[in-house]
Amino acid sequence: MSEDVFFNPGDAIANAHDFAGAMQSAEIFKQKAPLQSPLIIVEAADRKDAFAVYFEKDAHIASKRDVPVIQYHIRQRLEP
Predict the structure, then answer these.
(1) How many structural domains compose the chain?
(2) Structure pTM?
(3) How far is Cα 52 from Cα 11, in angstroms, rounded to an integer?
(4) What sign for the dihedral angle of Cα 4, 6, 12, 13?
(5) Of 23, 35, 44, 57, which sees the most CB atoms within 10 A?
């Protein structure tokens, strides 16, 4: 079962064309600064080669009209 979330693309910490690249960016970010929230690596619901790293706390419950949000599938959670 996949879990879907919505994020504003402007809130991304990192973007990559493959999962390994996104994971590497997340690990580097995690080592450089204390985390405010767990990081999650997501894959765009409409593309299979678009990964991004976000703070889990920045997820939107549903599509909001006041900010552009995109649906993603959660691939990995990284605890602080």
Answers:
(1) 1
(2) 0.84
(3) 10
(4) negative
(5) 23
Distance CA 45, CA 43 (A): 6
pLDDT value at position 2? 65
* Residue 15 token pair: 């973007």
Residues in the chain: 80
What are the distances in angstroms from CA 29 to CA 4, 25, 34, 61, 80? Answer: 23, 6, 9, 25, 11
CB 15 within 8 A of CB 51: yes
Strands 14-16 and 70-78: unpaired
Domain that holds residue 46: 4-78
What is the rounded average pLDDT of the residues 46-62?
87
Q: Which two tokens stand for residue 45?
A: 């619901």
Are 31 and 46 within 8 A, CB to CB?
A: no
Mean model confidence pLDDT for the chain: 86
Q: What is the pLDDT of residue 68?
A: 80
